[in-house]
Structures are given as C-alpha cells and as structure tokens.
Amino acid sequence: MLHIINNVPKIKALVCPVLFISILLISCSATDSEQFFDGGNGTKANPYQVSNVEQLQEIGEEENLDMHFIQVADINASPSAEFQNGSGWRQIGFRETPFTGTYNGNGYVIRDLKLHAQRGGPSNGVWGYVKNGRIENVVIDNIIQLSSKSMNDQHQFASFDQSIELLPPTYEVLDLSEANGYGGMVGFNDGGEIINCIFHGRVDARMGAPAGFVGINTGLVENSHFKGTAGGFSGIGFTSINTGIIIDSSTEIRTSGMGAHGFVSINYGEIIRSSAHVDLYGSNGSTGFASNNNGGRIESSFVTGEIGGNRIIAGFSNKNSGIIKNSYSNVNVSIRHEMDELFSASGFVYENTEEGLIENSYATGSLTSIDGEAELATVIIENRGAINSLYWDLNALEDHPDVLNGSNEGATGLTTAQMTGPAAEQSMPGFDWVNVWRTTQDGYPVLRWEDE
Question: What is the DSSP secondary structure assignment for residue 43, as one 8-state letter?
Fold first, then answer.
C-alpha cells in the first residue's frame, strides 16, 4: 500500500506540466489572434478591430471566416499590390470556405486595393464568396486606378470567333450551384446582406463578364453604389445575375466589350428604386438597364446616358418576360451596321414576351442608325405581352414605329411639350402622381424617391 501511495505524487508530477503547457499554448494562441488586430475578440458584441490592409487580408484566413469585424480607420491598401508574390489581393472567402461572418466598414475608406482576377477561377471581388454573411458601410476608393489605364486598353479582349458560354441560356432554369461571379465588392453573395457600401474604381478581367459591384446576388443588396469602369468579354454596371433583392442602389458605368449592360445581365429577382447612368458600347449588343428581365421585377428604376453598338440595342431591356413598372429610359441610342444583316434597336425594350408586362413607364432620348438602315422602334421591336400606360417622346425618338411587330395597345406617343413640365401630369394620366411620380419645372417627370 505504501508503494502505491508513494507513486501518486509522481503521477501528478507528470500530468500537471502537460496540462499546464496545453493551457499555456491555448492561451497564447488566442492572445496572438487578438493581438494581430487592434482589439476585440471576433464576437458580435466585441468584433475584431481592423485598421490596415494586412489585417484586412487576414480576414480571409479560414479560422476568421465566421468572425465579426469592424474597421476603425481609413486604410491605405496600396501594399496589396505585393500580396501573393505580386498578384495582388486574395479574395475573402471561396465557395468551399465562404465568409459567413460580418464586416462593418464603419464609414472609413479603403484606398487603392489591387484586385486579382483569376481567369476561369472562383468568384472574385474584395469578398469572393459570402454565405449568409453581412457586409455594411464599406467604402472602396480605387479612383486612382481609373486614370492608370485607358478604356481602349482595358476592354475588348475577346473576339467574335471565341466560342465561350459566359452565362447559362436564359430560357433554362438557372442553376447556380457551380457558377462563379466576378464583381468589384463581392463575387458571389449567396443569401448574404450587403448594406450601405460603395465601390469606386475599375473592375476588369481578360475573360468573362465582370460586374461593377456584385457578380451574382441571391441575397439582399441595399443602398449600395458603383462608379467606374468594368469590362472583359462583356461588361456589366452592377450585377451579372440577380435572383435576390436589390433596392436603393445605383451604378455610374463606362464599359465596352462583346456585350455591355447598364445595371444587370439577367434578373430573376427584384430590383427596386435603382438607377444606371451609362456610357456603353457592345460589339454584339448593349442594353441600358437589364439585358434580360427573366421573370423578375424591375420597379421605380431608370437609366440615363449613351448606348451604342452593333446587332441588338435597347434603351432599357433587351428581353422582358417579367414586370417593368414605374420606370424610364432617357438615353441616346445609336446602332452601327458592321458584321451582321440583323441589326435593330429600340428606345425601351427589344422583346416583350407573352409573360412580359410593361406599365406606367416612358422612353425618351434619341434613336440613330449609323452606316445602314437598321430596324428601329421607339419603344418595342417585338411585343407579345401586355403594355399599360407606356409613353414615348414623338419629337425626340422621331418618326419610327412605336412597336415594330405586335400590338401597340397601351403605348402612346406624345410631344416633348406634352411630356415635360407641369403638362406631363395631364398628358400621362396612367401615372400615380401622388405617391410615385412628380413633374419638374421644364423637364421630364422623375420618380419621387430621386429627391430623397
């Protein structure tokens, strides 16, 4: 018995140092992680504090992807040009390891971030893949990059004979299970929330169709804005594919490529109270706001600016099989005949399908055919759907058929005098002048939210 008892202290002597070392290692690891950031512990109540670009890049480490962060100072991100052996920024989150936490930019600015686009690779952006996470109050200011490369150099990398399927056929059910997105702020927003964010700069890739703000959105984007250039095979002002909700957001975009689309390429979801100011040129076609509104809803939105290109051009949407309501197009549309006998343009929608509804909207601007006689229609080339209170400017869009093929019931041409100033309220009785629209002193009507 004495032998057994005497061995007990010896066992304790072996166990205690091991326990002590384990506890010490755990304690040091936690301390190191917390010390790398300016403060916090990564919880919602006490998020990690971020003040430099090295800390910002550290968010992409797998152990941090479900943590919570807050920015506490403006960040000079120019050192990111040396990241990844000179390739630049590594996106935060991939499909297999998405960002699921939160990041609050707190209104501070991140300047001159060198984005790295992977050709044919995973979703790209500042954040690559966000899964049910939240990004808010982030300001990316890459304005310095806009002047470092000319429009002629940064676009039109692909040619007509390249057989690349950029997006799934729009008449099929969309499967995003393996899709990759490329946007300035976020590549793929999978059910997450992006609130009160701004991206100002250049987004381009040698192949593919980059979007200014978010590549693919299945979640919520609210009060967010892009300003700059985007381009590759095609260029898109705000998002490539939307199946979620985009509200109170805008783009100011200059782009050229095979295709050029002002706000969205394919919309299956809702886009509400949003706008695009555009300078577009698409060698295979361009659209001011939505290339394909595929069963989606676009409401209280508008596009202004310049659109040019070949083949198929539309002031607001190329194809509508959803709802376009309380919206307007005020763009100068020009089409050039170069490589194809098929070339036509419309001031508002190219094709309104059987499922399509356009109501309480208007089109103005100009409509011009260059180097040949294109088929032109002031509002719709092909209409098989429904139109209700769609107005267009007879003087501005000139003497073209309002609807080239199909019924023009519900479309009304008015003079500039009838559509502008206080006279618009009497001339456009289909509009809700109390809650949605208001007249201006001497211009076209505007949406009331534009004053907010």
Answer: S
